[in-house]
Structures are given as structure tokens and as C-alpha cells.
Amino acid sequence: MDSLFEIVDSIPYWLLVLVGGIALFGAFQFYYWGGKKLGAKLPETRVGRKIGKERIAKVENLVRRWGALSVFGCFWVPGGLRHTLPWVAGALQVNYRWYLVASAVGCVTWVPVTAFGLYAGVWAWLKLAATSPLYGGLTLAALIAVVVLLVWRRRRRANAPAARENEPAEV
Predict the structure, then answer these.
(1) Maximum Cα interatomic distance, the chain, rounded to a whole number of Å
(2) What Å distances lie between residue 131 and 66, 73, 135, CA to CA?
(3) How far is CA 33 from the centre of its chain?
(4) What is the SS3 assignment for 100-111?
(5) Which of 27, 42, 115, 129 is 20 to 30 A from 35 via CA?
(6) Distance CA 106, CA 34 (A)
(7) Rg for the chain (alpha carbons), in Å?
(8) Three-state SS for 15?
(9) CA distance 8 to 119
């Protein structure tokens, strides 16, 4: 049986980029048409409630101002904007031809950079884990701890305004 390194190393980088690009482009088309079908009802749907009315309003303003260019820009912004904006673009019925071009250019530019970073990171961790399982495990545990901490902080911040609204006013 081949070692894990040989299996991972045998996957050509261009294939990772191609598959990732096609998958992301397909997801963006699904998001757009889903948003177009939902239209103004988007905030009341399960997807809309998960996104949040305030976030949808911010993204709507961004899309109204920048149009399809905002679709390209959303690839380079961290967080949920990358997956929120296409729903809103569909709901606002951004011109589909421009949306198609912007999402294609976004995929073609963003996927190779991201794939390279992920490929390099995973490869480095696999080498570290093979050399020293202890350090590999500690590195993985630290990464998981950072992700848990970030999620916890984000949820705490999101719930903080709601907690303040429910407090009794001081006299």
C-alpha cells in the first residue's frame, strides 16, 4: 500500500484547482438562482434567518452600490460574505450575465490561491505529523482550539446586543 504522502503527492495541483473551481462556481450559481427564486421572501426563509436580517440589509446595500463587481470582491473578503452575497444578488436580480462573469473571474482568481495555501498547509502538517506525531497532534489541537475560540467569541459578540436590550434600565 502506498504511503499517505505518495497518495497526496500524486494528486496534481491543477486537478485540485479545476475541481475546486468547478465546485465553487456551481455553488455560486445555485446560490444566485436560489436567491432569485426566494426574492423578497429571503429574510423570512430558513436561509435568511440563518444569514440574519441586518446582514442581508448590509449586503443589499453593497450589491445595490457595486452590482456584479461586489460578486468578484466577495471572494477576497473573509467570513460569510462570500456565501451570503450571491443569495442577495439573486434576490435583487443582478444582471445574470454580469453575475456570471464576475463569479467566473472570482473563481478563476481565488481558487488557485486558496488551493495552494490549503495544499501547502495540509502537506506541511502531514510531514510534521509523520516526523513527530506528538508535535503533529499538538499543532492540530492548537488549531482546533483557535477555531473553537474564534467561534465562541463571534457568538458571544453576536449575543451581546440582545443581552443588553433585555436588561432593565437604570434609574
Answers:
(1) 74
(2) 49, 40, 9
(3) 18
(4) HHHHHHHHHHHH
(5) 115
(6) 19
(7) 20
(8) helix
(9) 9
At 92-146, the pLDDT tens digits run 888 999 999 999 999 999 999 888 887 788 888 888 988 899 999 999 999 999 9
List the grid coordinates of 106. Answer: 472570482
Find the angle CA(42)-CA(47)-CA(50) to the nearest 5 degrees: 115
Sequence-distant (≥ 6) Cβ neighbours of residue 59 within 8 angstroms: 81, 84, 85, 88
d(CA 98, CA 82): 17
Residue 28 contacts residue 103 (beta carbons within 8 Å):
yes
Which ranges of 43-95 would DSSP assign to H, the alpha helix?
46-51, 53-66, 68-74, 81-91
